[in-house]
Amino acid sequence: MIPKVSDIHTHNPQATDGVINLEQGAEPQRDDALYSVGWHPWWGPCTDWNWVETCAADPRVVLIGECGIDRSRGGDVEAQIELTRRHALLAQRVGKPLILHVVGAWGEILGLRKQLKPSVPWIIHGFRGKPELVRQLLDAGFHISLGPKSPPALAGLIPPERLLRETD
User: Fold this and answer.
1) What are the backbone angles phi and psi of residue 130, rounded to the nearest 5°?
2) Which residues, in sequence order, are bridge partners of residue 132?
3) Residue 121: how many CB atoms within 10 A of its CB?
4) Angle, vertex CA 162, rays to CA 28 and CA 22, nearest 5
5) Cα(62)–Cα(36) distance, rounded to whole angstroms?
6) How far apart are alpha carbons 28 and 34 in whole angstroms?
7) I want to staple 36 with a disulfide (CB 3.0 to 4.6 A). Which of 52, 63, 86, 158 is the partner?
């Protein structure tokens, strides 16, 4: 269900072995590429849910998100939680993994996962947290993606089947 690519999350529209995150309002352009679609918390309140749903139905879109909760830059936390819930329900409905941007909201994202009990994978992207949090996330069923700013030692804590890599 999670695509086998070397880069699970990139903003490079020319990527050939990765999942390209669509920018706000953009649509998949290439037939030889894989994409993700979601309303990033930095964009503020969602003003075009129809765009997210329409793109989510495209077979080239293989992940829902990047969406999530960012306490440092995302605005109203309750609104972010509700929008993340909406993305999670969409991911479940279309049968595609959810890729999450989480900053300072680990309790909220763990609680949402526990409440929704998803059958599709949830991926934490660009993880840079502490080893104790890695264990907590793994125990809750998350996959974890490490990027260039992630501490290298974290890779040894994550089982290979739950470890992903990215360039973002």
Assistant:
1) -80, 155
2) none
3) 18
4) 15
5) 6
6) 8
7) 63
> Tokens 């649509």 sit at which residue?
27
Tell me the residue type at 35.
Y
Residue 88 class from Cβ within 10 Å (0-12 exposed, 13-18 middle, 19+ buried)?
buried
Choose among 157, 153, 19: nearest CA to 144. Answer: 157
Q: Is the pTM of this model over 0.85?
A: yes
Task: Break the chain into its structural domains and give their ranges.
Answer: 7-165
Q: Give 75-118 pLDDT, tens digit per residue.
A: 999 999 999 999 999 999 999 999 999 999 999 999 999 999 99
Q: Which residues contact 47 (CB under 8 A, 6 or more apart)?
A: none
84, two tokens: 């993340």
Position 15, amino acid: A
- Using the predicted structure, report yes or no on whether residue 168 has a pLDDT greater than 90: no
Listed in order, strand segments (DSSP E) in the chain are 7-10, 18-21, 34-37, 61-70, 98-103, 122-124, 143-146, 163-165
Superfamily of domain 7-165: Metal-dependent hydrolases (3.20.20.140)
